[in-house]
Amino acid sequence: MNVEKLQKVRSVLQAGDTGRAEKLLEGIEERDAEWFYLRALIYRKKTWFSESRKCIKTAIKLNPKNEEYKSFLNELEQLAKESRKKMRAEQKQKEKNSQKMREAENSDVTLCQAVCEGICYFAD
Q: For residue 61, what is the DSSP state?
């Protein structure tokens, strides 16, 4: 009976109804490897990657031979790696932009000083 419920959750999830799949999953009391795998899929769809990773690791502990679970964990780890790389690139770009802003501010001050000095010079 649990297998049928889990299959239902999987099909609802594949149809794209994450909210309904989550409600169905919560109604299943026995939490086996498949339950944790499905929970990991739901978390991933919600972009809750840390929670998804915890659940898939639990699924793998409960069923270490399941290749689908291992593949999903590898996918999550690849996403995390790409995300970290993107965040580092964004941080570098922010730092460059900040440096450019500081340089522009300094150049504006220098320009203002030159204009003021020029006005003062001609006023004498």
A: H
- Give, as one character, the DSSP assignment of residue 47: T
Q: Are 63 and 69 in contact (CB under 8 A)?
A: yes
Question: Would you say residue 89 has pLDDT above 70?
Answer: yes
∠ CA 26-71-83, rounded to 5°:
85
Angle at 41 between CA 12 and CA 25, to 5 degrees: 55
DSSP string, 89-107: HHHHHHHHHHHHHHHHHHH
Distance CA 20, CA 78 (A): 28
Least confident of 83-87, 94-98, 102-106: 102-106
* DSSP label of 27: T
Q: What does the block give as tokens for 51?
A: 């929670």
Which stretch of 27-36, 44-53, 75-84, 108-117 has the lowest confidence by average pLDDT?
A: 108-117
Amino acid found at 57: K
